[in-house]
Structures are given as C-alpha cells and as structure tokens.
Design goal:
CATH architecture of one domain: 3-Layer(aba) Sandwich
Number of strands: 7
Bound molecules: NADPH dihydro-nicotinamide-adenine-dinucleotide phosphate, 2-hydroxyethylsulfonic acid
Largest sheet: 7 strands, parallel
CATH class of one domain: Alpha Beta
Radius of gyration: 17 Å
Shape: globular
Number of helices: 8
CATH topology of one domain: Rossmann fold
Structural class: alpha/beta
Helix content: 40-55%
Order of helices and strands: EHEHEHEHEHEHHHE
Distance between the termini: 41 Å
Strand order of the largest sheet: 3-2-1-4-5-6-7
C-alpha cells in the first residue's frame, strides 16, 4: 500500500452516500480533501464528522457539476494550496424515475445526462491538464452495474453509466505515455439516498429497493476506491464490478422477503 498522506483528493457528490464515505475513508489515510456538492450544509456535516476523528485539512466546494460555468470558475479559482489535485473521484450522480423509454420524462433524461456524463466531463476537463502538466494524478470514476447491463426502465440512467465506463477507457487511451491512472469502480446495489432521489422522496418505494437482502454499504465502496488509490504507481486498476453476494445481475437479487 502506497501512502496518500497529504495528497489532495477531490470528491464530487461528497454530501451523501458513497461520496461521503469516500471522504471519510480518504481522511483516514491522511489525505487532504476537497469536498464538492450542491448542498453546503450536508458537506459541512460530513466535514464536521471527519474533524471529530482526524485533523485532516478540508476545503468545501458548493458546486453543481452540471453547471459548466460554475465548474470552470470553481476549479480555476481554487486557493493556491488546493489547486494541485492528485486524485479526482468523479462520484456525483443520480437517477430519476424508472419509466419505460417511450414514456420517459425528458427533463429527467436531461438531468441524468447533464450530471452523470457532462458533469463528469466538465470536472475532468478542468482538472486533468494540471495532472498532465505535473505528470501525476489518478481519476477514479464511479460507474455502475447499470453501465454493464440494462434493466427495464433503467434506459437513460444505464446509458449514462455505460458512458462513464466508455469515457474511463477513452481517458486511459488519451493518457497513454503518462503516469496518470484511471479507474472505474462499478457498484451494484448500495444503500444510499440514491433511490430517494430516483423516486423523488417516495420513501416507501425507495426503502423497498433495499429490503429482503443485504445491500452493499457506501463504506464497502469507499474502501475499494481507496484501495485503487493506494496501489503502487505501476498498478492501474482499470475496472472493478462490485456486487453484494445476494446480487447476481442487474435484475437478479436474492430477496428473502
Ligand atoms: P446519493 O444520492 O446518496 O449521493 C449522490 C451524491 O451526488 C450526493 O452527494 C449529491 O449531492 C451529488 N450530486 C448529485 N447531483 C449533483 C450535481 N448536479 N452536482 C454536484 N453533486 C451532485 O447516491 P449514491 O451515493 O448512491 O451515488 C453516488 C454515485 O454512485 C452516483 O454516481 C451513482 O450513480 C453511483 N452508484 C450508486 C449505486 C447505488 O446503488 N446507490 C450503485 C452504482 C453506482 P448534492 O445533492 O448535495 O449535490
Ligand atoms: C445504481 C444501481 O442497479 O439501481 O447504479 O442501477 S442500479
């Protein structure tokens, strides 16, 4: 395991779920953290939790990744001490709805594409030139099993995650000859706010997604993300599909009730 002490790690979507867990896991390794999301008060709560157990340096960034101008401005005006991001975790993402494609809400499609694909691109485009210039860096994208397999009603969400997978591969090709690493971590079902967001606060429907089996936890994924980041420099974990043992495919989950 290679030390990432004092390395600057930027996590998008750090206000909840997998991103918040990544923040805590990177803090435990002594990294310095830039935590980005739209909900500043949630970021502050995550930062306060981290501060209780470590003296990790934290910089908060209220940033909507789907807003290109905001991303460019926020990342180009980072304080000098925070500018040289070593590890970028492109985690911010969401799903909206589960309608059949031909009945889909186009606004939902726009939001998923703007966040999961264009947001990831805007952040990456802003930070990668610095990594290339310094000849140092690691981009870790959070994809999904949905990028490997479609499921009914998943249509546009699945397409965005297939895009994350494709872009991870494309990035590694374009970084050929540099020491910069690219990883894509693709979880199956993880219990987070994801389904609350997908079903717009329909708690009963959201809770059903995680009932009757043992889903992955955000910490399970965060541990793997940190594992990718702490391999020796010659080891690039390109892609990892991680499922709970109760899940065999995007549509096969062994529910006991
Ligand atoms: P959560 O809803 O718990 O967290 C999503 C995070 O993304 C929040 O911090 C949210 O912050 C942030 N986010 C959403 N939209 C934006 C935006 N426009 N700008 C900035 N931040 C944004 O869900 P998860 O932790 O589950 O999701 C994290 C990632 O993991 C997503 O990419 C998701 O697709 C992926 N994933 C999730 C799986 C699951 O089963 N939960 C499985 C596979 C992949 P805020 O609202 O404060 O902006
Ligand atoms: C989130 C997991 O299966 O709900 O990417 O799409 S799934």
């Amino acid at each position: 395991m290679v030390s990432i002490q004092n390395r600057i790690v930027l996590v998008t979507g750090a206000s909840s779920g997998i991103g918040a867990a990544c923040a805590k896991a990177f803090a435990a390794e002594g990294a310095a953290l830039i935590l980005a999301a739209r909900r500043k008060e949630k970021l502050e709560a995550v930062a306060a939790e981290i501060k209780e157990v470590s003296d990790t340096k934290i910089h908060l960034l209220e940033m909507d990744v789907s807003d290109r101008a905001t991303v460019e401005k926020s990342l180009s005006s980072l304080p000098k001490a925070w500018r040289d991001v070593d590890i970028l975790v492109n985690n911010a993402g969401l799903s909206r709805g589960l309608e059949k494609l031909y009945e889909g809400d186009i606004q939902n499609w726009e939001e998923m594409i703007d966040t999961n694909v264009k947001g990831l691109l805007y952040v990456t485009r802003s930070l990668l030139p610095g990594m290339v210039k310094r000849q140092q860096g690691h981009v870790i994208n959070i994809g999904s099993i949905a990028g490997h397999q479609n499921y009914p009603g998943g249509n546009v969400y699945c397409a965005t995650k297939a895009a994350v997978r494709a872009l991870s591969e494309a990035l590694k090709l374009d970084l050929f000859g540099t020491p910069i690493r690219v990883s894509c971590v693709d979880p199956g079902t993880v219990e987070t706010e994801f389904s609350q967001v997908r079903f717009r606060g329909d708690t009963e429907r959201a809770e059903k997604v995680y009932q009757g089996f043992t889903p992955l936890t955000p910490d399970d994924i965060a541990e793997i993300v940190v594992f990718c980041a702490t391999r020796p420099p010659h080891v690039n974990i390109s892609e990892l599909l991680v499922l709970t043992t109760d899940q065999s495919s995007a549509t096969m989950i062994n529910r006991q009730s």
